[in-house]
Specification:
The protein has eight helices and eight strands, in the order αβαβαββαβαβαβαβα. The protein is of the alpha/beta class. Strands 7-6-5-4-3-2-1-8 form an eight-stranded parallel sheet. Strand 1, helix 2 and strand 2 form a beta-alpha-beta unit. The radius of gyration is 17 Å and the shape is globular. The N and C termini lie far apart (about 40 Å).
């Protein structure tokens, strides 16, 4: 995956180290994270706040029981986050990808003991069932970062409409890049829009062609996730 990401970056005229692959480990066992660490992967993404809390503790225990000097993972939270679960995430991850409201941002700032780097999730396609901020509301949320002490915005994130065809999702990636470029022209405190988090296992190369700096790859690294139990 890292070689494919580097090749896609080079094809877009960018340096081969301009894209970070985040291994999405949701619903996978802690032992898979440890195995990926041993293979050189450092950044891992989780979608659920309590799963992140529990998996972090389990991975730390496995690393403590293993050879000395094993590097710890850098955790990313990439799923939707409710304000009442911000306590499990704020100040505990390298990057929080899914801020989409002033209320959530304020709660993250309140909960974080130190600086918390964030991305703003934008619903570029306007899907009613998807999380993410409407593009026209982005400016006001970016302004809010300047009024808070413990949060910093490093870029934007999106989840495009579901499609297995990279050509179908590429216009959304291009739209997020244009939105980022327009907002980056404004000088705001605590805002440095250097990152675009977009692209997954089936379309990350198209996302890189449109400027992605962070790609979230799960199935292509870990394989199919176990089926979810049916709710009663």
């Amino acid at each position: 995956m890292r070689e494919r990401a580097a090749s896609a970056a080079a094809a877009a005229g960018r340096s081969d180290d301009s894209v970070l692959v985040i291994a999405v480990s949701k619903k996978m066992p802690p032992s898979d994270v440890v195995a990926a660490l041993a293979a050189g992967q450092r950044d891992f993404g989780e979608n659920y706040a309590q799963e992140l809390r529990d998996k972090r503790a389990a991975v730390d225990a496995l690393l403590a029981a293993g050879p000395a000097g094993a590097p710890p993972p850098a955790w990313h939270f990439i799923g939707p986050l409710q304000t009442n679960k911000a306590k499990y995430v704020a100040g505990k991850v390298a990057l929080l990808h899914s801020v989409d409201s002033v209320e959530l941002l304020d709660e993250i700032d309140r909960r974080a003991a130190g600086p918390q780097d964030c991305l703003v999730q934008v619903n570029v396609a306007g899907e009613r069932h998807k999380h993410g901020l409407a593009p026209e509301a982005l400016g006001a949320l970016l302004d809010r970062f300047g009024a808070l002490a413990r949060v910093r915005c490093l870029g934007l994130m999106l989840i495009p409409p579901l499609s297995e065809d990279p050509a179908a999702t590429r216009p959304c990636f291009a739209a997020l890049r244009r939105l980022r470029d327009a907002e980056a022209a404004r000088d705001r405190a605590n805002v440095d829009l250097r990152h675009l988090s977009m692209g997954m296992s089936h379309d990350f190369e198209a996302a890189i062609a449109e400027g992605a700096t962070l790609v979230r790859v799960g199935t292509a690294i870990f394989g199919q996730r176990p089926p979810q139990p049916r709710s009663l």
